[in-house]
Queue: 4 jobs
Job 1
Amino acid sequence: MKIKNICCIGAGYVGGPTMAVIAQKCPHINVTVVDINADRIAAWNDEDVSKLPVYEPGLDAVVAEARGRNLFFSTDVDKAIDEAEMIFMSVNTPTKTYGKGKGMAADLKYIELCARQIARVAKDDKIVVEKSTLPVRTASAIKNILDNTGNGNGIKFQILSNPEFLAEGTAIADLMNPDRVLIGGDTTPEGQEAIQALVDVYANWVPEEQILTTNVWSSELSKLTANAFLAQRVSSINAMSELCEKTGADVNEVAKAIGMDSRIGPKFLKASVGFGGSCFQKDILNLVYIAKTYGLDEVADYWEQVIIMNDHQKRRFADNIVSTLYNTVSGKKIAFLGWAFKKDTNDTRESAAIYVADDLLNEQAKVSVYDPKVVAERMYADLDYLNTRTAEENREGLEVCKDSYQACEGAHAIAVLTEWDEFKTYDWKKIYDQMQKPAFVFDGRGILDKEQLKEIGFVYYKIGEGE
Ligand code: NAD
Ligand code: UGA
């Protein structure tokens, strides 16, 4: 079966970039990305590609090339479903905030709504692809909905699992050159035919040996497993960072030493103020919940520790600022460099900066923030969401600056929360001259030049580095 029309439901951080690359690489396929959020669709359609709703290096060029040719963004979900032979579901699957599994399980209401809409609208057979990250065995629920809520006129649905492994900030490079593409489907001949149809799409630019096909459950579970392993590495190195600080070891040296063991490997061993992002925490909590529902308490506890360690890392960073500043930050200006959860993205979901700011505001600090890509409204929304204090209090306690030097002026301390490259190129002497003395820098990303900063006169703390 040759695919000519693809629909993707969900124009977010995954749906937008993923479909833009598919459209660019497959000019013979029409790709329509739909969303219920009209503002988001309008931004995807903005003539000025610097205004796209997702910031990713290289995304603007891909969109500029394909949009209007074979890449379309629309709010007309029904029409796009109707026209497509293959429909990707790329909607959000956040942690549940209510009811059974609150705070742990994935909230599948958006996925269910998609499935119901596809069933209602479809007039011919469809391949439905799970692009969102989902609990293992969700495909059976989707199949049930598709088969039983539609018009009942014999339409056949094939469900594939095709989890996305892109990381934000490098999404375009990851999509153009993925380590692997994973496709899970039914072992029946119809299932295999559906798998092949999706393999054929990716084969336009991904070498076939990197396209892995499995059964549906392996594919669904591999996504949660991959994120759990990645997050576990960060928590493992962060756990060692605390021990390094106590013992005089340097976590970067330790990471290098262990990373040269080819069984361990050098990547993803950067100690930090704690991992953020929309998925690591959500997916591990989901994994923990799934394990618990099968009565696998030891498995659940094992993975939960990754989150406990991460929460500890964020909290101890804030605590260290307070204790170093003579046990009080009340009324003191603390400058934040960075708010995004990592560099090269405007995404702030679960960013460590939010939690560090929240702790410091509890201590009555005056926080001033500079981030090159995150807008003020986003930062306030992140803080308001925690419900720790009123919206007015958040706006009183936290100032957002468009200029980094202004953010640091008069500050007692600077905290580096995101590893943006530009921070390394600043005139640190100028910053020092405009700060209160002693001037402290708390480098939560370990990116600044320690010798240079110390020479200027800063009291410099780097995560994972003992005296
Ligand atoms: P997102 O919140 O940025 O985007 C989801 C979009 O879906 C939103 O724009 C929302 O309006 C839309 N939507 C929700 N319900 C809809 C409906 N019924 N009809 C039409 N549109 C609807 O989320 P995201 O970051 O793109 O993540 C999507 C999925 O991909 C999640 O399951 C996530 O775990 C997974 N994932 C994310 C990343 C990442 O880097 N962000 C990477 C891999 C996998
Ligand atoms: C992560 C995975 O890397 C992707 O493969 C996956 O598709 C995605 O989650 C998802 O499912 O959403 P992402 O969260 O975008 O991607 O970014 P990462 O590069 O993994 O970084 C996550 C967090 O860990 C960031 O806060 C980052 O600063 C932190 N991190 C990462 C470290 O502190 N140290 C490291 O060595 C690596």
Job 2
Amino acid sequence: SKNKHSATYTIYDDNMHRKELYEAMLLDSINDALNENQFKLVFQPKYDIQCDKPTMSSAEVLIRWDHPEFGEVKPDFFIPLFEQNGLIRQLDRYVWRETAKQMHKWRQTYGVNIPFSVNVSRIDIFDNDLIDYLKRTLSEYHIDPKDLHLEITETAYTENVEQIVKVVKELQDAGFKVEMDDFGKGYSSFNMLTTLPLNALKLDIGFIKGIAENNKEMNLLECILEIAKLLNLTVIAEGVENSKQYLLLKNAGCDAIQGYYFSKPLSTKDFESLLKYSC
Ligand code: C2E
Ligand code: MG
Ligand code: MG
Ligand code: MG
């Protein structure tokens, strides 16, 4: 495949911008990447903060691409690329299957029964086989749907209202838990909060950044926590990076947090050490 890449390079070098060239090369290497296991899962714990001491209650599964030529490629860069090129379904299915496999293994080895969450692209919402695929895959590994939480990004809810309402209801009926990811990042639709049967809200990192510096942002956070409580939604804050933010969130009644302050996303091996330690 080295030759294939250098061929692409010679043809496009003069006409394409660096970014476009890089994108083309990445797209070109996806099949190899899937076949050669270049994609890895990492696990970022979510901590319950309304108990005596913070307790790991779940973990989010995030994908990493360790490219043989480019090194680590960021999901923020390649996920949109996969979405635009009809490849995200294959990638997300890979992540979900590997997650189920890993959960099964950890249950057998360490007896841990915490739920895990995976990301669902807004494109996956249009996959007619989405729910059956998830159910089939989980049942292969004897995982109950209630133990797989699905994080669907906020933008999905504003773009295709009818479709998302239908799919989220079907997911709930099938027993999955649904979390609205990146809440507060774009045009948060409060209407969606009452229209959809959601289980949790994940507050976007951009929303958490200012709470320790700015009264207005802290007031807004308190209002959102209030609304969430009325709607019976669990609130998870993402991107918590310091003790100040953590304490503000805890005192304001936020249910759970995720962020570098408690843990970065961990490799399979490092997450295993954490499981061993906490059992
Ligand atoms: P997300 O689902 O909102 O995930 C949170 C992102 O914030 C992750 O970036 C995580 O590593 C990062 N993060 C966690 N704690 C902190 C913190 O304290 N500070 C800062 N600055 N960042 C923190 P990551 O892993 O690079 O993923 C970026 C996005 O790519 C994800 O955002 C998600 O939208 C998407 N993504 C990742 N894996 C998958 C996947 O398997 N499928 C799909 N469809 N999308 C994925
Ligand atoms: Mg997420
Ligand atoms: Mg998120
Ligand atoms: Mg986010």
Job 3
Amino acid sequence: EKSGYDYFMLKEIAEQPRAVADTLLGRIDAAGSLTLDEVRIPDSELREVDKVVIVACGTAYHAGMIAKYAIEHWTRTPCETELASEFRYRDPILDNRTLVIAVSQSGETMDTLMALRHAREQGAKVLAICNTNGSTIPRESDAVLYTHAGPETAVASTKAFLTQLVACYLVALYLGQVRGTKWGDEVGAVIRELSEIGTQVEQVLATMEPVRELARGLADKNTVLFLGRHVGYPVALEGALKLKELAYMHAEGFAAGELKHGPIALIEQDVPVVVVVPAPRGRSVLHDKIVSNIQEIRARGARTIVIAEEGDATVRPYADHLIEIPATPTLLQPVVATVPLQVFACELATARGNEVDQPRNLAKSVTVE
Ligand code: M6R
């Protein structure tokens, strides 16, 4: 069933363009308007929503973190993203105008399930974003938007993550459409770009050989750090999580703006730091900020591995290794920026002789606390 690939993870990474396209299929019409038939929460109720809370664990939580940026920007509705394991034991303030979104590949994660039960008991409406038909989380939710990634076998989530992102964008855009917020030129352009995002993922996959080579050269390192800002921050966290679970290396993701508040003390000669760079100047106010962050860490000896938009000449002088990704609207960038990090972690795990599909101590579906 690995279809010629050495590992399920490699197969699932390669399936991402299709998975992403399948998740979009039938949900955006030619005029750019969205139909999410399965979301059976009436529009009138969606218009009443005054707060969105996203709950999830692990990689799904990173998708939820990215969704927060999209929901707040496109719908102007306050949104919080919380680890399900924390949320369920707090006393969160929810009512029938709160929309809770539970994101889960398996649909069986215990903490996420308990978080959604906790939310429903308090009258909140729950929408599941899930990859497994008929699993417990969608069954217990008011509505479900399925990701169409197909079965994911490798413990490390890859195609499920990319499709969770797509589903989150669809929900955010749908909320914007129903509520009539931000429905201008920017959103129209985003919808067009989102429809094409699978092709961009394919382009990234075609250029991964240098990333694999770079990973093999880092197999004896102890630590890899990841930096990002805005939606690049959850991407950094996801890159670090992949590396921990697959390569068993110390890996940490930071918001680049936090560097001076502590993490910069970790920078020493030759420590690899992966930096996710937002769109170049003019399209992201954060571009220049991250370029100075790269200069700061490089001046202290870091070996910089820079993921940046193709043609971004400003970062080039500060990148010891440059990984180029296609241009996309800022909020969609995580879809393309995550792919090299998956390949990087998979290759490092292989180089270190680890079991890629079944990392030690981990289970695909965490059905206990
Ligand atoms: O099935 P779920 O999406 O609810 O699983 C959540 C996490 O357990 C999962 O994403 C985990 O972090 C992955 N192993 C990450 O690669």
Job 4
Amino acid sequence: MGNESLANLMTEERRFAPPAEVVADANVTADAYTAAAEDRLGFWAEQARRLSWETEPTEVLDWSNPPFAKWFADGRINVAYNCVDRHVEAGHGDRVAIHFEGEPGDSRSLTYAELLREVSQAAHALTELGVEAGDRVAIYMPMIPETVVAMLACARIGAPHSVVFGAFSADALATRIEDADAKVVITSDGGYRRGAPSALKPAVDEALTRPGVAGRVRNVLVVRRTGQDIPWQDGRDLWWHEMTERQPAEHTPQAFDAEHPLFILYTSGTTGKPKGILHTTGGYLTQIAYTHHAVFDLKPETDVYWCTADVGWVTGHSYIVYGPLANGATEVLYEGTPNTPHNGRWWEIVQKYGVTLLYTAPTAIRACMKWGDDIPARFDLSSLRVLGSVGEPINPEAWIWYRKHIGADRTPVVDTWWQTETGGIMISPLPGVTLAKPGSAQVPLPGISATVLDDEGNEVPDGSGGYLALTEPWPSMLRTIWGDDQRYLDTYWSRFPGRYFAGDGAKKDDDGDIWLLGRVDDVMLVSGHNISTTEVESALVSHPRIAEAAVVGATDPQTTQAICAFVILRGGSDAGDEDGALVEELRKHVAKVLGPIAKPQRILPVEELPKTRSGKIMRRLLRDVAEDRELGDMTTLTDATVMELIQAKLPGAS
Ligand code: ATP
Ligand code: MG
């Protein structure tokens, strides 16, 4: 990094006030900021009372051994009881917890009473297999209700789960099983993906033969989803339905300490080797339940909530499983891809279930932009009232498209910044309070302390950029990296002692609102200026011909780094640019929006961009291309052929 603070080039003048009907009945008002500012720990103690504790905590935060936090340490609680039983006890047993929509079109709705029965039986089954509190269970599943049941059953008996995204390879699964030292794996024969059954069990079999894994796992519980033929090892492999159906329907939940481990989850690996992030019980559930209530303005009696993430990511853990269910929500769970069997599948689901709150990722929004405005226009989306975004910076133009074409130019859009490590949402507008700015996550939530620091660790003034940092501990913070306290200290707490280093660049605008500028590793140094990839990408996407853009800095003898952009054209690349006139126009457009310093040296139209399986652009591979080097590690990439296509487009490629 250079010494000059990150450039602050983009200016976004559009503002959107919260709609009167949301303001009138908002779950959280501006008072929450004041209350939390006056007494942060008192504020969180109050939020903890949303939960049902077996022993109410009297302590809030123990920060006597920083950065190893303990929250609500003398409280005792059962997470599954909070997510299921208490809603049934309160008379909501008939409320639908999950509307499951399978990719082939099969569907099934589970009430809270049914969920309670399934979770209880699964908890008994795990106990029968000898799983005890503290034992780790790996979960490698498609997006089906049994996945949620499995996670809750683990939580119920105090066995931390480690969910591994179902599309990860046998190798990725093996390293995660080994690192977490899992005793049992829960999987399925397969799931439906892009119109066909896609097997999962064979990857488990393969993973369990790897050195370091062989002999570790006692049992594999297999859910039957597709009915496809799968290999079977007698004694080790057991059918989920055979194991669970014969168990008693009632199970007495036992309370655990607030700091009992709830799960380990490996980060998505956008920047390097995944880290096993450890989350615990009471503080995690407190912040997840509160943020889900506040950011989505959830009314459990009437809302239908849908988060499109996979449960294999933290978004699925916190905002499909634990947050919505702790709050007694009715939610949609969809198994497949957004474009199977047609590009309007998501909007068909919104229409079918009357979805009111939708939470998705910029990558999906940009894909929908690319497919065309006419597709969502064919469906009735009038039930929607709040739209959320997470995972990457959302370009202002994508934000505007989302609000206009999905939200009828009426719904608030909440851009939520957080990480696997933070456990829950940290920076986000509130739908009934915030005057929204397209492309900005804006302000830390009540009870959260975030700021932007310069190289020396000083807070930057409004109007400047630097590094995003969290300045006070928060309830759902990671407790450590599993088995590696030193890496926890080095990665997050050594850059700015006493403060959490998020690894993201950010700026504060003149109003003090926070804008995320992408990974610190992705920031470019051009002629002595730090320029954020996000801002150049957003400038490109603000051109009507561009659907998506990825920008990297390539080593350049004159300017240190030269800006190199890879763009996807709206309507596909057959909308070609043979004479290069469009590229020239795009370069000028960026210069006009951001200033001449940010003008890309090269712009290359491509079909697709390299992305992680969680949908994030992998800029480091594009940097390898731009610098004409051998490509680095591609194991977390969705589709390696994308890189061949891009390389074939380069001038000089054979
Ligand atoms: P790894 O840490 O292994 O490189 P990862 O950071 O992609 O993987 P996650 O924890 O899933 O793994 O992602 C968190 C990151 O995603 C954040 O640090 C940030 O870079 C990005 N991000 C998430 N939400 C937003 C948002 N609303 N705006 C901007 N960036 C976001
Ligand atoms: Mg990260």
